[in-house]
Amino acid sequence: MNELVVLSGKGGTGKTSITGALAVLAKEKVLIDCDVDAANLHLLLDPIIEEKFDFYGGIKAKIDQDICTKCKRCSEVCQFSAIDDFVVNEMACEGCKVCFYECPVNAISVHNHLTGEYYKSSTDYGPMVHAEIGIAEGNSGKLVAEVKKVARELVDKEQLILIDGPPGIACPVISSLSGADFALIVTEPTVSGVHDLERVVTLIRQFDVIPMVCINKVDLSDYQVEKIENICITEKIEIVGKIKYDPTFVDALNQGEPIIEFDENNESSKEIKKMWSKIEKIINSY
Amino acid sequence: MNIVIASGKGGTGKTLLATHLAQGVSEIRKVELLDCDVEEPNSHLFFNPEVLHMEAVKILSPEINSQHCIGCNICSERCEFNALSVVNKQVIFFPELCHSCGGCIIFCPTDAITKGDKILGKIEYREADNFEIISGRLEIGSALAPEMIEKTIEKANKNKISIIDSPPGTSCSAIAALSNADFSIMVTEPTPYGLHDLKKAVLVAKKLEVHVGVVINKYQDDKDIITQYCQEENLPILIKIPYSKDIAEKYANGKLSINLTHELRPIMDEIERMVENE
Questions:
Q1: Nearest to B83, CA basis, from B65, B69, B103
Q2: What is the DSSP string of B43-93?
Q3: What CA–CA distance (Å, rounded) separates A198 from A1?
Q4: Cβ of A38 and B253 within 8 Å?
Q5: Which of A263, B156, B190, B192 could form a disulfide with B224 if both were Cys (CB 3.0 to 4.6 A apart)?
Q6: In a domain, A51, yes or no
Q7: Which of A36, A40, A94 is opposite residue B101, by nearest beta carbon?
Q8: What is the pTM (predicted TM-score) of this model?
Q9: For position A159, what pLDDT does the model report?
Q10: Among the three residues A79, A96, A114, which one is the final residue of a domain in this structure?
Q11: What are A121-156's pLDDT values in tens digits?
């Protein structure tokens, strides 16, 4: 079993569209959408939900006003300023239970908190696990960990777990990277893209993960492409694909199809096919 | 006044809008640009990059003195984040899992765990022509982006208009930025991805009771799905920015477009109106 996670640092570089295309090309695999904050892979792969699960991503404290003696111990110990006027603000509560243990009259209880749901689905390209975080709910990193756990249970006969990752470098990205074997970083030749690539590469170095780079919208700036190439040389990262700015991606998305299904002979589709054979080679060499 | 530039989906043009808007507003009002996309702060790249001043942001972290540990295990039993385990009277601490709740420090009966701190990130101060840029930068490897966002927003100057560039997404980080908003501008693009994530971000803003205006970037025509959605939901569309190769190339190389700053006039008028009603 191998895990390939598609990341970017910067948002909107093309992670989901490229993951969707790779989903068509990869043979035996399970798909995961780990961008649970803004999950979009289902818009391309049109999954049929087979099982739906509630996700309790944490606990929240509650103060029983009939027992509370208003001693203020709870708000003194709360590091998250989550207790205001002896009422718990659920949005700020981290579920650390410190108030629960410290309350001298046992006025505080904790309860499981529903933060989202996740789905086992089927697509034309194989099984898919995806999730939806509740409105204004936190703990997306835990939901990512849960979705990955479920996918790993499905994978025994399959070869690959292909993961559409979240942008950034913090909690949900760290969760997506843990246990991954390979990372495809989709970047773009802009000052922001280059800056964010450097940060995500530094993060990946803290994990036992082999990185590869795909430069999307490669014709936007030769100067920034050169900068990306230099980073990849210094970091010894292979650039596996270079894709030009191509409105066909949006046309395919409007049609709800991965670009390779939408137009197999399109330049970008051909480039992604070439890229996939390079990625397969790298995966098979380990 | 905090104006939070948000989006749901990444790469729709938050930083493009925040930088140009700060530049535009600076000509008429006292303004500052706060970069709260602490995982990937990029706004400063479009101005003078020199850091004038920098401060470290620290957060509570337990310090362990195993000599005092009696192996009672209370700390690891009570840690909700699995950040502590006790083996042979040795406390093993996993800093990447710690949420800085301080519980273990309070619970330890022998004071083997005391109050320390760790670096969460840093705040960088830079000067553009007419305004200050304050950027929060999360330490790489830290998961605590929302805490870093809070610490960055605390630096907002109440006497200025603060244009706040925020992270994509709709969970912890986006909530941390939006919770502090007086008004939110959601930047989106007319694609199914853009619409899906905008809907989610708008629901978050509604729950937080923050008013929303929408900017459609890479706009094509009036039949687009975002315009339709905004009409249905009665959301004001502040401006529509057509796709421009010139803006994209300037942006790629870290340059602002004067033409785009001029196009932002309707948003600046809206901000003026809000300032006067304050």
A1: B103
A2: GGGGS-----EEEEEEEEEEEE-GGG-----HHHHH-TT--EEEETTEEEE
A3: 28
A4: no
A5: B190
A6: no
A7: A94
A8: 0.95
A9: 82
A10: A114
A11: 999 999 999 999 999 998 889 999 999 999 999 887
Give chain B's domains with CATH numbers.
2-52+120-277 (3.40.50.300), 60-117 (3.30.70.20)
Positive or negative: CA dihedral A72, A76, A77, A82: positive
| Domain region containing A89 | 57-114
Beta-bridge mates of residue A241: A214
The CATH number of residue A67's host domain is: 3.30.70.20
Residues A228, A132: one domain?
yes
Total domain count, chain A: 2
Do A23 and A135 share a structural domain?
yes
Interface pTM, i.e. ipTM: 0.93
> Is residue A64 located within the same domain as residue A173?
no
CA nearest B168 in A: which residue? A11
> Sorting pLDDT into bands at 50, 70 and 90, what band is A177?
very high
CB burial of residue A278 (10 Å; 0-12, 13-18, 19+): middle
Q: Which residues of B touch A174 (CB under 8 A)?
A: 96, 141, 143
Q: For CA atoms A251, A254, A260, A261, give the dihedral sign.
A: negative
The CATH number linked to A256 is: 3.40.50.300
A205 in B contact zone (CB under 8 Å): no
Q: What is the pLDDT of residue B220?
A: 84
Residues of A in contact with B78 (CB under 8 A): 97, 101
